[in-house]
Design goal:
Number of helices: 5
Largest sheet: 8 strands, antiparallel
Distance between the termini: 36 Å
């Protein structure tokens, strides 16, 4: 793991969008949870990501933030073989709260269904990526007036 000048765990705890690249090549924007040294992405048979990873588990994932007003530019790039792990509601709730807030009554019903539908019927699963390599770079610059 390489890092330069910022706390990776703090950066990855923000509600940022990651992009997952699979063989094909394809790239998908995803919401994620960084927990237990792994990226957790909700998926299932309705998504092309599911089929791509099932046929070839090698993925790359990028999370970045760029603010031209402040000059903040940070990125994390992870690579490795993803795996499917059974969906669990507590982790699902933690992931959705970080993007949608704690009040489930304000969530769009599409997101609520992930927590309350039977994952066996719907096929909801986690794609978990424990990175073989993880590179963090702070490419920030000074903004001059």
């Amino acid at each position: 793991m390489t890092s330069s000048a910022f706390d990776v765990d703090t950066f990855l705890s923000q509600p940022l969008t990651a992009r997952v690249a699979t063989h094909g090549p394809t790239v998908r924007p995803v919401w994620f949870l960084w927990e237990d040294g792994a990226f957790w992405v909700l998926t299932g048979p309705w998504a092309r990501l599911f089929d791509h990873v099932r046929s070839n588990p090698g993925v790359a994932l990028v999370v970045d933030d760029c603010d031209i007003e402040t000059g903040l530019v940070q990125q994390v790039i992870a690579r490795g073989d993803a795996e499917f792990v059974p969906f669990d509601v507590p982790r699902g709730r933690r992931k959705l709260i970080r993007y949608l807030g704690a009040d489930e009554s304000r969530w769009d019903t599409r997101f609520v269904r992930y927590l309350y539908d039977d994952p066996g019927e719907r096929g909801t699963t986690w794609l978990r990526l424990v990175p073989d390599s993880l590179t963090a770079q702070d490419l920030s610059y000074s903004v001059t007036a």
